[in-house]
Write a structure and sequence with these properties.
mainly alpha
Length: 148
Amino acid sequence: MGIECISSAKLEDTGFNYTMSLIQGKYKMFILYTLMEYGIVRFNEMKRYIGGISYKTLSATLKELETDGLVCRKEYPQVPPKVEYSLTERGKSLIPILDMLQWMPHNAAGILGYFGLFLAIYVVIWISQYLTIKRRIGQINGKVRRQK
């Protein structure tokens, strides 16, 4: 394994960037964590468990995760409608990342102290928000380019 020169490399060409593009967003990690912990979850159960998320946002985020192949949606034709969500095999491959986030509060305090714990959580949140904004700017720029 040789050392690459950063001047010829691009983050967008890495697997890291692709993985982050799948999980970035305010609620995606919360939804993935919920499904990891509880397996099959109904829409309203998830909304109650996560809290603070609107029906519209939850629905849109679940659709994005389903499109990305991370979440499976199963609809039952009955009245009232019943819809269940679960992780796909691809979604289950993210469990080590979710486990690491669960590991941090239990171990980072002992290693880094409480400031380190706060800093580690802040960095994870900041990266997620930064990548969300970057993706949105890219989408806007893509729309502007297409209109020309």
